[in-house]
Amino acid sequence: MSKIELGIHPIGWTNDDMPELGDENTFEQCISEMALSGYTGTEIGHKYPRDPAELHSYLDPRGLRVTSCWTSLFLTTKPYEETEKDFIDQCKFLQAMGSKCVVVSEQGHSIQGQTETPIFDEKPVFTDEEWDRLTTGLEKLADVAAPYGLKIAFHHHMGTGVQTTEEIDRLMASTDPSKVYLLLDTGHLVFSGEDPMDIATRYLDRIIHVHLKDIRGPELAQAHAEKQSFLGAIRNGVFTVPGDGIVDVASVMSLFKDSDYEGWFVVEAEQDPAKANPFTYATMARKYIKETTGI
After folding, report:
1. What does the pLDDT look like over 136-155, one tens digit per residue?
2. Which one is the CATH code of 70-272: 3.30.365.10, 3.20.20.150, 3.40.50.720, 3.10.20.310?
3. Where does the record place the Xylose isomerase-like TIM barrel domain (predicted)?
């Protein structure tokens, strides 16, 4: 039996960074269609109740559990104490929901939410001092998360200071392997020009959470040619579900299935639901994963 479980992110139904995308889709519709599509896990979106008892009352009858939840860090630009305060609140919530990891991303200097900033031309680059603040802060946060039964999974992300292979390598080399773990996102790696299989193979023992998303080739080329922002590229349809684009998601999934990996595969594709029906694409991804991995 595979030790991999399959979840999906609500961002295909309603977008956290651009709430107008999917504003018409309700929380109840989202989680009902997730369950109907064959998923057993969900990440957290902005329409989800934050009271654990209330959220359980919606998820439990549908056979859904919380895989994790995005947590923004500002270790490079703000005092550590500010980040820790919000982080503790997130840990308490995730513990109450039965999660095993907390997804973190360094948002200091991030351009991912800027609608007019070219994603490739103005990517932030950390100074050596900022790298030290980031890596030291991550190890402190790992110690904070441990009593809650949580490990931190760092999300490399387009438009941030940890996006490229070189930057991922530096983060991994500069942090304690027993404290700081990695989230692998197939879509963000290919968007950036990296090789998901290379990162997956290199850091297989430190990857504790996987986001499965695909990239549409023509829209990626358009993002380069038109110097689009990250959000502009999303609006244009650069992301899609596994099996619908140019990313060899099947090989990445097979690598994990044949390993000792225990955790979630989370389907994630930031799309405009008016153009890409969320239920249709969730079902499409579920079928693709079943056919290629047996999961």
Report:
1. 999 999 999 999 999 999 99
2. 3.20.20.150
3. 36-277
